[in-house]
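Weekly sync, protein design subgroup
Attendees: M.S., D.O., the rotation student, P.L. (late)

Item 1: inverse folding check
M.S. brought a backbone from last month's batch and wanted to see whether the design step gives back something sensible before we order anything. D.O. pointed out we never logged the input encoding, so this time it goes straight into the notes. Structure tokens as presented (230 positions):
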């Protein structure tokens, strides 16, 4: 299944009252500090780098082990349900690695599907059946971990981050920085690659917690069970 494209960055809905005067000025200052502190957390590049490294390592094993044995080892990586990330996680490194593993499994299955050896076919079929189940359990865990890391990073700038949805696929940010559309657009653009890779479905921005009107973006990401193709 092909990965769905992310639509042009326009809010799906916008419902917010604008604060005036010094509140906007304060919001801009806070946002500038926030944007500097975010660093690479909202960048998708680290996932790609970790993915490439993991894939190269796994594919290198083709030289020293049989195809059937390689497929068995691949299956063993995903046969158990994924566990929550370590509580000590301060950045997205562990998230990147776990996305890279799922991508590597997909690549290995694709490259081994042409082998018609009975033992290889058996393992390929087992992996194809198990991988969508594994991903459906893994992605909600990764999204929750990502939201927790962002929350810990952003609290110093009076930005609250929360996650919702039955699959942890809605990310909400609340803070004075989001009193302006420019700030919202900047943050959304900086996050969109990572949000798509982790298959979030929506982001919501409020400039204060009690706001009944807000801005939100729908994200056209694949389902959690779809193969990772990028």
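Designed sequence read out in the meeting:
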């Amino acid at each position: 299944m092909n990965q769905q494209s992310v639509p042009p960055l326009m809010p799906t809905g916008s419902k917010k009252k604008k604060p005036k005067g010094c509140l906007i000025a304060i919001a801009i200052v806070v946002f500038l500090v926030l944007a500097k502190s975010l660093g690479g957390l909202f960048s998708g590049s680290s996932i790609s780098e970790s993915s490439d490294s993991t894939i190269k390592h796994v594919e290198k094993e083709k030289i020293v082990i049989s195809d059937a044995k390689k497929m068995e080892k691949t299956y063993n990586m995903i046969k158990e349900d994924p566990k929550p990330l370590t509580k000590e996680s301060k950045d997205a490194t562990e998230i990147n690695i776990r996305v890279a593993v799922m991508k590597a499994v997909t690549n290995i299955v694709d490259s081994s599907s042409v082998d018609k050896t009975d033992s290889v076919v058996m393992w390929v079929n087992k992996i194809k059946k198990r991988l969508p189940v594994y991903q459906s359990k893994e992605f909600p865990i990764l999204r929750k971990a990502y939201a927790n890391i962002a929350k810990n990073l952003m609290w110093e700038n009076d930005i609250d981050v929360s996650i919702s949805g039955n699959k942890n696929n809605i990310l909400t940010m609340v803070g004075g920085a989001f009193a302006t559309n420019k700030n919202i657009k900047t943050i959304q653009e900086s996050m969109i690659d990572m949000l798509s890779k982790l298959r979030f479905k929506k982001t919501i921005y409020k400039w204060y917690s009690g706001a009944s009107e807000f801005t939100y973006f729908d994200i056209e990401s694949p389902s959690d069970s779809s193969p990772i193709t990028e």
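Discussion: The radius of gyration is 20 Å. Helices lie at 22-38, 45-60, 67-78, 93-112, 118-154, 181-197.
Action: P.L. to compare against the previous round before Friday.
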